[in-house]
Amino acid sequence: MLKRCVHGATILLSCGLFGSGCADNESSLFVRSVVHRTPPGCSARASPESEMLAGGVLDTSFANDTGGAYIAALLIGNQLARVGNADQVRTETARITLRGAVVEVRDPSQGEDATPITEYTTDGTGFVDPSSGTNPGYGLMFVELIPPGLALSISRVTVAVRVFGDTLGGDEIESNQLTFPISLCTGCLIDFTHSDSTGTCLPADETTNSATPCRMGQDDLVPCETCAAKNAACRTP
Questions:
Q1: Distance CA 18, CA 5 (A)
Q2: Are 107 and 114 in contact (CB under 8 A)?
Q3: DSSP assignment, residue 193?
Q4: 2-185 has which fold?
Q5: Domain extents in the chain
Q6: How confident is the model over 117-168, as pLDDT tens digits?
């Protein structure tokens, strides 16, 4: 059974909702990984050759910027075989429209059988073309793996995420589960390279070449001079 939590209520959905069998769907639609977006472009490519993250980092010093949320670009694969045929005037129904994700945030020290810290369904959008031969089609969906305002007193969580959607043929489908660890810290992503002898951050000048991260306080170092004006944590370590 699949559990979803919507507006505080837990809903149990049977595998029958997703067509002929959950196992078949989990191999047809899958979450491959979390794509690492890098500045200055900050774009994410729907390709298995994109840079992937083995785990995430969320710096709570930037809660005013992020709301305390961790947003991931998920690389989604579709292994459904193409069925469209122009000669027979048959449209392609194996394309998948993504609608959302089911997320569980867990304390890894409590074990897999422990009650999650939180579990919820979140909306999302994306589109995945079918496979070409033995090569899956790929698409992207941005998902909140840690929701805004979630109070966490531990230094690491494990997030389990599944995505779901519909084929153009009208069948509901759900993916496998991706498990993704996220470390939480206060100030660990602030880079004080451009500071004086006391450690106080110096204003940016013509000698600095500071690249602003794609998302402040998530995964990548933040040069102190890019955030010192608005964030006291960036002024001194």
A1: 18
A2: yes
A3: S
A4: Immunoglobulin-like (2.60.40)
A5: 2-185, 189-237
A6: 999 999 999 999 998 888 999 999 999 999 999 999 999 999 999 999 999 9
